[in-house]
Amino acid sequence: MVGLISPSHAVPVDRIVGVEAPGGGALLIKRCVVPEGGQVNWITIKSNAPRTVFPRVQLLCGPLSTVLEGRVLAEATDVATAGHTASVSIGAVEVGCDEVYVAVTMPASTGVVTRNSGPGIGGRLAEAGTSFVSAGPAAPLQRLDVGLTIDFSPPSAGKARGASGSEVFETKLLGVGPSPARLDATVQFSLAGEARVKLKVYDVAGRLVRTLRNGVLGTGRYLERWDGKNEAGASVAAGLYLVEFKADGKTFRRKLVVAK
Questions:
Q1: For the domain that residue 89 is a member of, what is the CATH number?
Q2: What CATH number is associated with residue 215?
Q3: Which of 225, 79, 92 is nearest to 160 (CA)?
Q4: Are residue 105 and residue 22 in the same domain, yes or no?
Q5: What is the rounded CA–CA span in Å between residue 118 and residue 107?
Q6: What is the pLDDT of residue 112?
Q7: What is the DSSP string of 23-57?
Q8: pLDDT in tens, 106-152
Q9: On the CB side of 97, how many CA atoms lie within 13 Å of its CA?
Q10: Does residue 208 belong to any structural domain of this protein?
């Protein structure tokens, strides 16, 4: 597996970086600047081809020589682009480390990247030395001669909306995990339009444990973290919990096991 770089016409960058991985699983990684205040809310990726789906996007604490060495701060799966942009809300993640990385698992590819075709991420020569390619989570990182177009900026107005040639979102609870969860758990959901979201955790007796979200959000895909604590800030006991997501007059529930 090698990083393949070809000229870009799809997005305003110097190059498009793709990977040769017919079976999938290769990663493109960027070491990002820790934002002022040390908090990350969004991850945004500029993609070559519309309708690309990245199997996994992770926010990691470094330093890294392999992706497996990183401490996972947030994770989202099946992240789809809207046009040439994939943006995912990860709540409000406190970084708490000097080096922070975004690791993007790439879909299966022959490595051939042409205009608007083939999975790839934009690269800028001015940011050379910040980005890497890896054959898999346990494989060593190989430095690229461009910086990938991955950052922590929120999507601009209208980017998350389903339009011609872009993803159309559905209001639903996408996933809860890992289960069992030993530290943090993540809840992924999407919204078809602006709606009030109520996201809560209950115990098996139906008692409210924690309100994760109670407010209005716009169209798009979101990821919320639960740190395993109740409203008083105390860690919950091991056992079975229920995550409830309400929006657009719909209610979704998923079970979550907490292990100690």
A1: 2.60.120
A2: 2.60.40.4070
A3: 79
A4: yes
A5: 10
A6: 67
A7: T---EEEEEEPPPTTSEEEEEEEEBSSTT-EEEEE
A8: 999 877 677 778 899 988 887 888 999 999 999 999 999 889 999 88
A9: 17
A10: yes
